[in-house]
Amino acid sequence: MSDNLHDAPARAMKELLGVIDALIAPDGCPWDREQTPLSLCDYLVEEAFELIEGIRTGDKKEAMEELGDVMFILLFIATLYERAGDHTLADSINHSTAKMIRRHPHVFGDKQFEDIKELWDNWERTKREENKGTDRKRVFDSLPSGLPPLLKAYRINSKAARNGFTWDSDEAVEAQFELEREEWREALASGDAEASEREFGDCLFTLVELGRRKGIKANAALDFANQKFLARFGKMEELAEMRGASLSDMSLDEMNRLWDEVKDWEKG
Questions:
Q1: What is the pLDDT of residues 32-58, one digit of tens each?
Q2: Are the C-beta atoms of residues 92 and 78 closer than 8 Å to each other?
């Protein structure tokens, strides 16, 4: 990549850092001056979800805008840490750069791997070496506790598989899922609400692993399903309004007919 291609983002980042400096200056914005890295966490999560929504819906303009908003929060947090004398933005970037180079010896060195499994094995070994002498000594110590449960289930299964603790085959996972589903049915039949919830969780956890093996990320897949349902339901409401009706006044059969009409419309 040429230096000219690097110049534009560097200038833009410098300008954004200047905006942040102005916002937290003594004569800056009272709200911004009160912020801390901790207080900005929720805003970072919110902006990240908005960026994800733009990406998953294919809205490139929205993705562009939200990417900038995420960058603003990240630079804001970095500036606050630097002002407090903790670490600089350069420290964070340099640490990440060194880590990525270290974890990709097949790209930045002369290491060669036979397959993706060997690559992941090396990745895990490298991480264990990096964590020596720290509190992160075990496989799941680096797993963020605040991850949404569905995403956490995927990461748990993925890390377990990288460390050799997983089912031998997809068929074995499918059999385990059927077993978990039967245990859930039994719990439901017993009327034990707590057991039903636990067994349902086991079903979800196993299904997440089955999807992972097929290259499907459960969190993203469910999000797409949510968006599809919301879009179809919105179309149902539009159709009902066009015909002078309201979904709240319709029977389930009538709504199902609208639902099928929307699905047929989607097919072209």
A1: 999 999 999 999 999 999 999 999 989
A2: yes
